[in-house]
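Encode chain A's predicted structure.
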Amino acid sequence: MTVRPPTPEALRAKGPIPRHVAIIMDGNGRWAKRRGVPRLLGHRAGREAVRDTVQGAVALGVEVLTLYTFSTENWDRPRTEVQGLMSFLKRVLREEVKELDRQNVRLRVIGRARDLSADVRDVIDAATERLAQNDGLLLCLAISYSGRAEILEAVRRLVAEAGSRPVAPLKVDEAAFEAHLMTAGLPDPDLLIRTSGERRISNFLLWQLAYTELVFDDALWPDFRRKNLYRAVADYQGRERRFGRVDAAGPRG
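Encoded structure for chain A:
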């Protein structure tokens, strides 16, 4: 018997909705390989998954949805694939911005912008500007992103701000450090979803995921839909988040 996924209404009634959901969109290449088509077609097939997931997040009332779109390691892929991905990214942003605007979605991009060509940056800037006045879901795209590089960049900015003065170690607390991260001002992810059955975080939001709940979905990314998101949220709601603290019943691991 097929079990129906929970509805947004049922999930909101059940318990807190995660404020920030992060997703590692994995499996495009394997989706294409299983069908005997070029890898780029797998990436293109993932577009509907992004659209449906964004709509699902809006329906749930999620505040921030961060999608791991392109890592710094992805630059090492074949040149034709990288060029195709960048062209696809530009086209999707141009074509989807109207629908994102209709859904009251804002846009933010994190990652090493200097790695992107000027035409890609221009499309990102145009989409970000058009959506800037919205106050709904913040869609955060991690493009040319590396968790380790983000941490190193934050340290470098802290040191650079000090100038010739030595950095006072005791003044560098978590708040000061987080203010220099690319995600400054955003809540840490409550829920991380990785698709395709892989069980690792792949250099994604290394600082921010310290107490995030992890859900691994076997669906390849092009097959992921809002029902998968809703099931992951239901899983999240069934967990007890203690953030390293001990509850009244005593320690349980």
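The chain has one domain: 18-237.
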